[in-house]
């Protein structure tokens, strides 16, 4: 694994972003609803409102792993990451739980469970049969709407500065978008300038992410911390400071926890792994 020398991605188009192409978030005084760590793209709007969101990353269980997890047979899916703002965390699911069934139907592997969750609407309550340290139990979970959860997470953790405070940019200076709302967005101390989305199994396979976990870079703003770090559309971020990152909420919390510091990103590009260093927003004033 080596540091990228910023090769040109011949296999991906150049993404040109204009103000008209951006989807404005709803902004209220002191709060800003964002998705994925930057200005929201069309992904939030395109998410089917009928598709339920559980909020876990998961792996198939092979024979060796089944023995480690005290399972009698190699089936089900192991929970490897949990979005702590999502239904899974609220229902008490834990890392390394193994989901063996959903609504009484046995789960053989990740593809099956993903399909069943995809076909279950937000707001529906499901029953999961799990194994935890070899002991089986039942967990009831009410699925949620992913876009709503991500927007709420941003509104709780990422404040927009008051336009009259010393942190806001003067109108017409310091950014290419003009004044008003865009000035407040770009002056956000947690701004990184990257629009991210969770990987599905098919996209993970396409981009060469073998464990299926990571965040796909959909867009990078010019003159942003992400652009300065060398991130590009089509990269997949798999780790932050050596820790797996599989949901946009995890990304939000990582940026919030490391504000103003250089963070190390593990990135898959052209199916090769490398590292990049990026500033996580602006440092706090002393």
Describe this structure in words.
The protein folds into 2 domains: 2-45 and 147-279, Pdz3 Domain, CATH 2.30.42.10; 56-142, Pdz3 Domain, CATH 2.30.42. 22% of the residues lie in helices and 26% in strands. The protein is built from 9 helices and 15 strands. The strands form 3 sheets. Strands 1, 10, 11, 12, 13, 14 and 15 form a 7-stranded mixed β-sheet that branches. Strand 2 (27-28) and strand 3 form a beta hairpin.
Supply the key terms:
single chain; about 290 residues; alpha+beta; Pdz3 Domain; seven-stranded mixed β-sheet; 15 strands; globular
Strand fraction equals: 25-35%
What class do helices, strands and sheet pairing give?
Answer: alpha+beta
CATH topology of the largest domain: Pdz3 Domain
Radius of gyration: 20 Å
Q: In the CATH hierarchy, what is the architecture of the largest domain at level 2?
A: Roll
Q: Which percent bin holds the helix content?
A: 10-25%
Mean pLDDT across all amino acids: 74
Task: Show the helix and strand layout.
Blueprint: E1 2-3, E2 27-28, E3 31-32, H1 43-46, E4 56-60, H2 63-68, E5 77-82, H3 87-90, E6 98-102, E7 105-106, H4 110-118, E8 125-132, E9 135-142, H5 146-157, H6 181-186, E10 194-198, H7 201-207, E11 215-220, H8 225-229, E12 236-240, E13 243-244, H9 248-257, E14 262-269, E15 272-279
Parallel strand pairs: 1-15
Antiparallel strand pairs: 2-3, 4-5, 5-6, 6-7, 6-8, 8-9, 10-11, 11-12, 12-13, 12-14, 14-15
